[in-house]
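Lab channel / #folding
Pinned by the channel admin:
"Please post every new chain as: sequence first, then the structure tokens as a reply. Keep commentary short and put observations after the output so the thread stays searchable."

First post following the new format, from NK:
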Amino acid sequence: MNFNQIRFFLAVAETLNFTSAAEACAVSQPALSKAIRNLEESLGAALLTRNTQHVELTEFGRTMRIHFERIEENRRRALDAAKLATKAATEPLNVGVMCTIGPRRFSEFLEKLHKTNPHIEVTLHDVTPPVIPHLLLSGGLDCVFCAREAKHDQRFEAIDLFNEHMVVAFADGHRFADMESVALAEIAKEPYLDRLHCEFRDEFLDFTKGSGLELDVVLRSERDDWVLELLRRGLGVSVIPANSIILNDVQHRPICDLTSHRSLELVTTRNEDMAPALEAFRDAAKVYDWR
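Reply from TO:
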């Protein structure tokens, strides 16, 4: 006796039709009939009476149907419990990513993490710098990829990842493509796409004004993906972190009279009792070759 034989019998008991029961169980009618005959042989009595007109349950069949329904119900409960237990084995991890950080350097890291720690279920959250401390301290986030602060809050600890330079980005075919580097004065001659969430924005605008330059801003956006698409279409140029450029037909060059760069890091709260998933994520970030 096996579970399939019981399931097939219950389907026939419900429909009193071998063809309909076979369709419901997604098997051929001969396979279903053979399974039920084998079940009857193992029990030593007929469960069904069959003729060319119809199918009926025997008295023995009606009695066994009650027991088999209980077995089937317990089987389904066991499967549901197994699914829940498997799902519970996964460890959720909420990872913040500062909204101006592009995915280029991080995608391979996350791919390798999944291969070595498939039980960690990562959810990425787009965050702005002002809300990061609250989200970490409240437990809304387990860790955050962000740019280094000038002075660290002692409630947090950070792992240095890599440095990233700011570059000027533009569409294929733009005149900047013929230059090894681009001066701010040349950027000021072009329509400019202003990235509102850029942590260097105020510093950059002050620097250009102090240099006697005024940017020709044609659009402002909080979203870098929109800026990249508009760059690709040739609407203007923009100063942007090098690793945020993820479109093949958007080029970039260094800015010869601006040396702005940022250091990216992984930040967590200082906690001796760190969850295993977070500890594994942190350790993977420590040993990963971010170059």
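NK: The chain has ten helices and eleven strands.
TO: also worth noting, The chain has two domains: 3-88, 91-291.
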